[in-house]
Write a structure and sequence with these properties.
The protein is α+β, with helices and mostly antiparallel strands. It is built from nine helices and five strands, in the order αββββαααααβααα.
Length: about 230
Amino acid sequence: MLRIAGRREARYPGTLWLAHDRPLAFSLTGRCGVIVATDGLSRHLPGPAVDAVLAHERAHLAGRHHLLIAAADALRSALAFVPLFRHAPGAVRDLVELAADVAAVRRCGASAVRSALVSVSGHGTPRSALGMARDAVDLRLARLRVDAAASTRSRVVLWAGRRDRRRSAVRGRHRPAARALPGDLSRIALKDAFVTPGVTKASFSAVLTCRGSCAVAGCCRPRTPS
């Protein structure tokens, strides 16, 4: 019925679009899984948020999350007297939603996924489908908030690191190269100690304390009195 009423768009392969003003999107399993979305989704949400919603639903289909939930429901029906199986369906639903959020974040970013989740929450989802805004919404919003903050910090650290490397490169052009003096622990000797095969922790400690009198191979040559 949905395949008859819905239409397809080249921009969103595998998605059926329905003429409805409420922003909805959900995925249905079957021989060929399908994502169903409404015109209200693209009408009320910005482009990155629409992409995040659809990426979330594609993750459900790719991970066969509908089958996992069906298996958990079957175990609860057959073995409801076992506490693990009795509580499994709710836990599995929360976990598959978190997994789909992770997949959407990798593709669209945490901010876009969080905006999409806020926009579509409270609009309902068919019982037999998986929708973005039905399970563990508060938990997922909190996690996405942390992910967005961590992503911002990572960008700041990356930018600062690039800036420092550029400054070091500029300074290096105007600074003469330092000579490695016998008996001195230079930066070159420290680097070689990390990457040279066969250097043990004890020999590396000897390198750190060397002043020209150790016998560690490759560390330095003993100084001879003049």
